[in-house]
Specification:
Number of helices: 2
Strand content: 25-35%
Keywords: Membrane, Transmembrane, Transmembrane helix
Structural class: alpha+beta
Transmembrane segments: 12-36
């Protein structure tokens, strides 16, 4: 019994392999083309997975610096009055240009008081971490813009 090598095998040649590959690829493409069913994509305007959230608005209704590093304020948060007591630190700063020196403020402690609505009714505290960060920024910006403190 004689063993035939692949070089002597007539059915195994590069041209035959390429022909078979081309035929299989053509059959696959034709199958996908004829069997694929086009579907109409429907868009819906309502998405239940994303809640309808509006950004909160913050305003300083009243602010009083009570000592060298403490103050009180009344914040308008989406129409609710939020009384706050806060502690702050001051330090000299500038924008890297001559004659732009100012007193920078960092709020170090924020205490939220009893929240009331427009009619004076007491509301449970509904503020979260983002509210506290934005209240701190509002207080800081108000104090710096109105130059209520100076570095001592």
């Amino acid at each position: 019994m004689e063993q035939k090598l692949s070089q002597n095998n007539i059915t195994f040649s590069i041209s035959n392999v390429m022909k078979i590959t081309a035929v299989i690829a053509l059959m696959t493409l034709l199958g996908l083309f004829f069997l694929a069913e086009p579907r109409k994509i429907e868009h819906t305007t309502q998405n239940d997975s994303i809640p309808d959230i509006q950004t909160s608005t913050y305003g300083i209704s009243l602010l009083s610096i009570t000592s060298k590093n403490t103050g009180t304020g009344l914040i308008n948060l989406d129409g609710y009055l939020v009384p706050v007591d806060f502690k702050f630190e001051t330090y000299p700063s500038d924008y890297g240009i001559e004659e732009t020196a100012f007193t920078a403020v960092d709020i170090t402690n924020l205490e939220i008081g009893q929240i009331t609505d427009r009619n004076g009714n007491h509301i449970d505290d509904f503020t979260n971490f983002q509210d506290h960060k934005r209240i701190n920024e509002a207080l800081k910006n108000f104090i710096e813009a109105n130059k209520l403190v100076e570095v001592r």
